[in-house]
Amino acid sequence: MRLGKKLWLIIFLKLFILFAVVKLLFFPNFLDEKFKTEKEKSAYIMDSLTTSK
Amino acid sequence: MEHVSELVDWSRAQFALTALYHWIFVPLTLGLSFIIAIMETVYVKTNDEWWKKTTQFWMTLFAINFALGLATGIIMEFEFGTNWSNYSWIVGDIFGAPLAIEGIMAFFLESTFFAIMFFGWNKVSKKTHLLSTWLVAIGSNLSALWILIANGWMQHPVGMVFNPESARNEMVDFWAVVLNPNAYSKFLHTISSGYVLASLFVIAVSSWYLLRGREIKFAKRSIIVAASFGMITSLYMLASGDESAHQVALKQPMKLAAMEGIYRGEERQGLVAAGILNPAKTIGDDKLDTFLVKVEIPYVLSVLGYHSLDAFVPGVNDIVYGNEKHNVMSVSQKMVIGKEAVTALGQYKIAQKANDEIAKQEALKRFEASEKYLGYGYLKDPKEAVPDMPLVFYSFHTMVGLGSFFIFIFFMILYNSMTGDILKQKWLLLLGVLSLPLGYVAQEAGWIVAEAGRQPWAIQDMLPVSMATSNIAAGNVMITFWMFAFIFTALLIAEVSIMTKQIKIGPEGH
Question: What is the DSSP string of A22-47?
Answer without folding.
Answer: IIIII---HHHHH-SSHHHHHHHHHH
